[in-house]
Write a structure and sequence with these properties.
- By secondary structure, this protein is α+β, with helices and mostly antiparallel strands.
- It folds into two domains: about 1-165 and about 315-320, Diaminopimelate Epimerase, Chain A, domain 1 (Roll); about 170-305, Diaminopimelate Epimerase, Chain A, domain 1 (Roll), CATH 3.10.310.
- The protein has seven helices and 19 strands.
- It has helices at about 30-35, 65-75, 85-90, 110-125, 140-145, 220-230, 265-275, and strands spanning about 1-10, 15-20, 45-50, 95-100, 105, 130-135, 145-155, 155-165, 185-190, 195, 200, 205-210, 240-245, 250-255, 260, 285-290, 295-300, 305-310, 315-320.
- The strands form two sheets. The protein has a 17-stranded mixed β-sheet that branches.
- The chain is globular, with a radius of gyration of 19 Å.
Length: about 325
């Protein structure tokens, strides 16, 4: 079997993108794992593009199709008296995105991946604004806001609106009521000094952020998997170490749930900006620095998060499976 695909990255956080809008291809878990394997092609996440589930909508609102809209909304069903409020947003959805981590698991959100696909499909429609529907098999409280708009700003710069962060314990989610501003998780640095804390944030997927004096003093490749699989996190979690440079600039390292150490992570950047500004989220701008560059995270007066940063050029690739996969 041979599949046409694309390869892109955001600050080194890399993706294989398969467009299934015109031809549905059922990939097995083994095939997903093979695509993500760096001895084959390799990526942090696999992204599947599908047709928008709302292509049937007309520009003028038709109350007779509320049941069909709610069927396609899945876990995000809305009351009939609220349907008009989002109808125009639904008509603008261009495609549906699904994300798979390199271990084959589903991901509720992928900020850098969304920005990459926005850039890719903007070339197709010759428009600078594009909106996606994000859906996967995880619980509704982890998918967050499923309507994700992006803007292409020029020079491979893309901004994506992630939505409003969640910080309540059951929205992260964690397994018991705790203060998510300090989860009381202990991590040790290379000299066995203990840091206790961890801030829980959900920005479409669960994150825990530790603010430390020096991110290089910790072995995240050892700490990350332990916290990812900690009993507090029923859906596992992403783990970020963050060092404050200035009040609006942080350096970070990230262990991604289902992917391990990655060069960058868009939702981790968003979660870190939220954790750094918990006392006053509104109207903040925070630079989050990775090894290969920065993302600018802006939070508006309604607490909506916008993530802006560069994406790579588009590379077309062929995926060829042998008869055993």
């Amino acid at each position: 079997m041979e599949i046409k695909a694309f390869k892109m990255d955001g600050l080194g956080n890399d993706f294989v993108i398969i467009d299934q809008r015109n031809k549905k291809i059922e990939l097995s878990n083994d095939q997903i794992l093979k695509i993500c394997d760096r001895s084959f092609i390799g990526c942090d996440q696999l992204i599947i593009i599908e047709q928008s589930p709302f292509n049937f909508l007309k520009e003028e609102f038709d109350p007779g199709i509320i049941a069909e809209i709610n069927y396609n909304l899945g876990d995000h069903k809305i009351k009939p008296d609220n349907i008009k409020n989002i109808y125009n947003h639904l008509t603008r959805i261009y495609a549906k995105l699904k994300f798979y981590n390199s271990d084959g698991s589903s991901s509720g959100a992928c900020g850098n991946g969304t920005r990459c696909v926005a850039y890719l499909l903007s070339k197709e429609i010759n428009k600078n604004e594009i909106t996606f529907w994000i859906q996967n098999s995880l619980a509704a409280n982890e998918i967050g806001n499923p309507i994700i708009p992006s803007k292409i700003l020029g020079n491979n710069l893309v901004e994506t609106i992630i939505g409003v962060p969640q910080t309540n314990w059951d929205a992260i989610p964690i397994s018991k009521p705790l203060d998510t501003k300090n989860l009381g998780i202990e991590i040790k640095d290379k000299k066995n000094f203990i840091t206790k804390g961890g801030i829980g944030v959900n920005v479409g997927n669960p994150h825990v952020i530790f603010f430390v004096e020096d991110i290089e003093n910790f072995e995240l490749e050892k700490i990350g998997p332990k916290i990812e699989n900690h009993k507090l996190f029923p859906n596992k979690c992403n783990v970020t170490l963050a060092k404050k440079v200035t009040n609006n600039h942080y350096k970070v390292k990230v262990w991604e749930r289902g992917a391990g150490l990655t060069k960058a992570c868009g939702t981790a950047a968003c979660a870190t900006a939220v954790a750094a500004n918990l006392e006053k989220l509104e109207n903040t701008r925070t630079e989050i620095e990775f090894d290969l560059g920065k993302l600018l995270i802006s939070i508006d007066e309604n607490k909506n998060i916008a993530m802006k940063g560069p994406v790579s050029e588009i590379k077309e690739i062929d995926i060829k499976f042998n008869g055993n996969i």
